[in-house]
Design brief:
Largest sheet: 7 strands, mixed
CATH architecture of the largest domain: 3-Layer(aba) Sandwich
Number of helices: 13
Number of domains: 2
Shape: globular
Structural class: alpha/beta
Length: 375
């Protein structure tokens, strides 16, 4: 049996290596390394794939979130509501822009922030909400969108882990993550469901004026060289990465399906084990399993299970070991343990298993057998 990887990019790339090499060679032959044709082509293809969104490629997912917030022209001191159980980038960009991150606890089943928690956190200074579609499953956008309209708030969807997932909109129809709110961001970090060979990201929106503002911001605040309309940033998706992403986008639907198939295997093998809970699948969202995350009964058992898997050479990860409010970066906010009990509990009991497009039946059997033997 081949060595098990948390994410097996080597095997994935081997299957499309000829296509990728041809695309890279074309960029090199054209010497179109900055804003070459592949960047515009990828933007158009991803927008069409998403059902008609306007896509603005950029250098990475964190930049994408920053640009999306800048495009909304929020003012320093404005409050932005976001989940406390997520990667630090969601909060740090808010802070860097002089905005105030307002943390809310998450749902113990979906790991996403509940609409009720969002509404309870709204104040007269709230201007925006960042729903993070964590681990590949969407926030309840059919409820969040009407709430945002009720309070005249903007929505910035963080789809870094859910590109290609669909969820129910406020009319009851299925719609891609990132196309429900005002504007969205995503990451093409190599381990993402759609990943490039380095850093990359994109802003996308169904609102043309926000797309135009984002295009200006990523290019030093300029439409025309040396003429700057606003303060912007320098954030470009490398042409080589765009060329690779054009190839991988053709396979994204299949990649997501392969992850779902692996998750189905895990579900069937692990559902009956006392002491763990398999991932919850919301009736309002397609889960595309950027991560397959178990909840173990307690921290001691979780850590013992990790040791058991490590001995068997089965990769595993904890996403995320420390909620945002307990990070040293936010110590000045004065949060204490117990402020967000669900997130704190999850940090002590979650464990993510290998999930990617190349998992074989033998590998899945090996992983699940070792988990069963532990319990």
């Amino acid at each position: 049996m081949q060595k098990i990887q948390m994410v097996d990019l080597v095997s994935q790339h081997e299957k499309i290596s000829a296509e990728i090499q041809e695309a890279i060679n074309q960029v090199i032959q054209e010497a179109s390394f900055i804003n070459g044709p592949a960047v515009k082509e990828f933007a158009g293809e991803l927008g069409e794939w998403l059902g008609g969104a306007h896509v603005v490629p950029c250098a990475n997912g964190t930049d994408a979130l920053q640009v999306a917030l800048m495009a909304l022209e929020l003012e320093p001191g404005d409050e932005v509501i976001l989940p406390v159980f997520t990667f630090i980038a969601t909060a740090e960009v808010v802070s860097l822009l002089g905005l105030v991150p307002v943390f809310v606890d998450v749902d113990p089943d979906t790991f996403n922030m509940p609409v009720e928690a969002v509404e309870n956190a709204i104040t007269s200074r709230t201007r925006a909400i960042i729903p993070v579609h964590l681990f590949g499953q969407c926030v309840e956008m059919h409820r969040l969108v009407p709430l945002a309209k009720k309070y005249n708030l903007r929505i910035v969807e963080d789809t870094a882990q859910a590109l290609g997932s669909r969820c129910t909109n406020h009319t009851g129809k299925m719609q891609f993550a990132g196309t429900h709110g005002d504007i969205a961001c995503t990451s093409f970090f190599p381990s993402k469901n759609l990943g490039c060979l380095g850093d990359g990201g994109a802003i996308f929106t169904t609102k043309p004026h926000l797309s135009e503002i984002s295009k200006v911001i990523v290019n030093h605040g300029s439409h025309k060289k040396y003429f700057h309309e606003r303060v912007g940033v320098n954030s470009r998706l490398d042409t080589l990465q765009a060329a690779v992403l054009r190839i991988k986008l053709k396979h994204l639907k299949a990649y997501n399906q392969l992850r779902q198939e692996a998750a189905n295997y895990y579900d069937q093998a692990l559902a009956s084990i006392s002491g763990i809970k398999i991932p919850f699948r919301s009736p309002y969202s397609e889960h595309i399993f950027h991560q397959y995350t178990l909840r173990v009964e307690n921290e001691r058992t979780r850590d013992s299970l990790r040791e058991h898997l490590n001995v068997a050479r089965i990769p595993n990860m904890i996403y995320y070991p420390v909620p945002l409010h307990l990070q040293q970066a936010y110590a000045h906010r004065g949060y204490e343990e117990g402020t967000f009990p669900v997130a704190e509990s999850l940090a002590k009991c979650v464990l993510s298993l290998p999930i990617h497009t190349e998992l074989s039946q033998a590998q899945l059997a090996y992983i699940t057998q070792h988990i069963k033997s532990f319990f």
